[in-house]
Design a protein that fits this description.
Layout: H1 22-33, E1 41-46, E2 59-63, E3 66-72, E4 78-84, E5 88-95, E6 100-107, E7 118-127, H2 129-161, H3 186-198, H4 204-216
Antiparallel strand pairs: 1-2, 2-3, 3-4, 5-6, 6-7
Helix pairs in contact: 2-3, 3-4
């Protein structure tokens, strides 16, 4: 050692690049324990540490059946909240310099609700960007799939009430008339068809076909 130099305390060795935060690892394990039979985890994203200075980092996840948000308590334990895919109204992703914000909006009504009405929205801030994109992609796929299911169901009901054939009918020319169709006036059916057209649930051709059936039934 050169003269007049003294050995100082050794500098702390940096954490390995791929090191996993034990608290986060515990959260992911707990998340997997929440899955029901037949449900699988498709994507998850963890909040970046800089956005969680006064609380534990949260985890958001997309499974085959729902969206899950997991919050860890300061003194241990977890709180989970979920939105089933059939109840999802909208998902939005905004990416910034340091992280991504994912906003989930649940529908005001549940289970194949025809009224496409937004309910409560929650924004999860500062998520790891690449992981947040994967979660968002699953949300978009599920949102589109359930939107199509609602479109087909609403179209089936409207065609049945106007004397048309249901999309799922195998016998051509077989009309289906629900018991409650008499309670809905032709004007109400036309209005509902127009609302579906304006919402993009049916095409112009489908709207004209439904309108013709309603008018023919007058």
């Amino acid at each position: 050692m050169p003269p007049n130099e003294t050995a100082g305390p050794a500098a702390p060795s940096p954490a390995p690049a791929g090191a996993v935060d034990p608290a986060v690892d515990a959260g992911v394990r707990y998340l997997r324990e929440l899955l029901v039979a037949g449900e699988t985890l498709e994507a998850h994203a963890i909040q970046r540490r800089v956005f969680a200075l006064d609380h534990r980092r949260l985890i958001v996840a997309a499974t085959t059946g729902r969206f899950i948000a997991l919050t860890r308590h300061i003194l241990g334990g977890f709180t989970s909240a979920d939105v089933r895919w059939q109840d999802l109204h909208d998902a939005n992703l905004r990416e910034g310099t340091f992280g991504a914000d994912l906003t989930i909006t649940a529908a005001a009504a549940g289970d194949l609700a025809s009224a496409d009405t937004p309910g409560r929205s929650v924004t999860y801030q500062g998520l790891q960007k690449e992981a947040a994109r994967r979660v968002y992609r699953v949300c978009q796929e599920q949102e589109q799939a359930w939107r199509e299911k609602r479109r087909v169901r609403d179209l089936d009901e409207l065609r049945a009430k106007s004397g048309g054939i249901q999309l799922g009918s195998t016998a051509a020319g077989t009309a289906s008339q629900p018991a409650d169709s008499s309670r809905e006036t032709p004007a109400a059916r036309l209005l509902r068809a127009k609302e579906m057209l304006d919402s993009g649930l049916i095409t112009d051709a489908e709207y004209e076909s439904i309108k013709a059936r309603i008018v023919d039934g007058l």
